[in-house]
Amino acid sequence: MEREAFTEALLRVMEAKEHWAWSHFTRGRVRRELLHIHLEQEYATYVRDFPVLVARAYVACPIAAVRRDLIENVFEEETGRLGAGRPHPELFLEYPRGLGMDLTRFERVELLPGAAQYRAYLDECTIHGGWDVAAAVTTLFLEGTKFDRGELSEGAPKRPVPPLTEHPLVMHYGLPVEALALTRAHRSVEGGHRAAAWRSILDHVLEPVRQAAVVGAMQGALREWLRYRDDVATACGIVRERDRD
Fold it and tell me: Fewer C-beta within 10 Å: the chain N or C terminus?
């Protein structure tokens, strides 16, 4: 597969990473007493263990330049010493803490069926998929957004960066801006992480069979992610318009 075709196949996956229910969260339509479900499932499905998932790609990778990028990502996620000041999973918990939620719930999260299936897929990719699949699924899919084309092309729309005071949790649920430490951390390091993630895959996954494996894994991640978010939406009391009576 030519580089351009490989890139386009990956970008198509990323541009489909948009769930029908997300606007309910960003516009404050989810009942406050159910919002904890979303945060708990995100935390237990991948946020808490994200450094481990990326580290699996690092351990399996035979390419020194890629390993350096991966281990820098792991180090920042696990320690925060390159920018955030604290481990990123800890910073995530500032969201529920700032919203007055019971943090003990995050110590014993029971995954929804779709979340459990999604996490099993992430484990399969990062343990058995090879370094390229593991790196793509974690650093491209998990960390990326539908605006990733803007990371590669000057003319493409960039990921919006509104003021922190316009964050949905601040505007609709009263989260103190000070609790957005993770959001600030992501904004400070994400540009470098996105560039490194795309460089690692596009510059070093050159064999057609491995390119096909990476694209297939990314498509699978999208499929499982959409199912996972369907389950979260249902648990948060969101009904899709077409499913209403």
Answer: C
pTM as predicted = 0.94
Number of domains in the chain: 1
Please state, in angstroms and rounded to a whole number, the distance separating the CA atoms of residues 30 and 53.
30
For residue 131, being part of any structural domain is answered with yes
Cβ contacts of 46 within 8 Å, gap of 6 or more:
53, 119, 122, 142
* Dist CA 141 CA 28 (whole Å): 26
DSSP code for 109: P
Domain residues for the domain of 74 are 3-237
Q: Find the CATH number of the domain harbouring 158.
A: 1.20.910.10
C-alpha span between 218 and 239 (Å, rounded): 27
CB contact at 8 A, 76 and 88: yes
Residues 6+ apart with CB under 8 A from 112: 41, 228, 231, 232, 235
Output b/e per residue, 123-144; b: 16+ Cβ within 10 A.
eebbeebbbbbbbbbbbbbbbb
Tell me, yes or no, whether 244 lies in a domain: no
Contact 44, 109 (CB under 8 A): yes
pLDDT tens-digit map of 202-242: 999 999 999 999 999 999 999 999 999 999 999 999 998 76
Segment holding 244, helix H or strand E: none
